[in-house]
Write the structure tokens for this entry.
Amino acid sequence: MPGAVYVDLDTELSAPPGVGGRHPLPDPEQLQAVLRRAGVRKDSQVVAYDAGDGSVAARVWWLLRWAGHSEVAVLDGGFAAWEAAGLPVTAEEPAPLTGEAAGDVVVRPGQMPVLDAEEAAALAREGVLLDARAAARYRGETEPVDPKAGHIPGALNAPMTGHVGADGRWLGAAELAERFAGLGASGDVAVGAYCGSGVTASSVVMALEVAGITSAEKPAALYAGSWSNWCALDREVATGG
């Protein structure tokens, strides 16, 4: 989109992979530098989009909220919807902003709840922990990325694809609420999400808020290390439906 600034998931929105997972949370100072080069100011309205199912854009949404910047949204349908609407596109890439032209956003980490492995295990027992991966990965029938197949014991499968329609746009609030209610997620129980590396699960956290099950004041928790961290710690694995 004209004027849009590219940010890279692997190198700018994540720390280097390791025991913490494949996409650990970035260093706050690094994230602040990235956002300032992109021109994000304290009062900026930020809109994130991607060329896929919206999960990477949701990671941007979640990171900005985690960093204390509340004015952020995800473009429904992403780049495909933009093109389908006949809106202008460009191959020009804006130069990174520096000096007085750069943004002045201040990253204040910790403004969204984050789970570690022990807390994720406890939530799966005592609340609702949603696994955003495909059903076959959840059941342990296949695992194309991580060293172990299966899921966190007690977690429920809620594939991210289930809250996106055939046209690539998100389902409405009522449809999302019905879907999550069927999994036991409601405003009366603690709820969190994980996936393979903490990216796709960000979209589940966002979808729960869109559905009205959680809110900006009481958001769902994210197991940021997700399955990649769980496997690295060699924790117990469950299989089957």
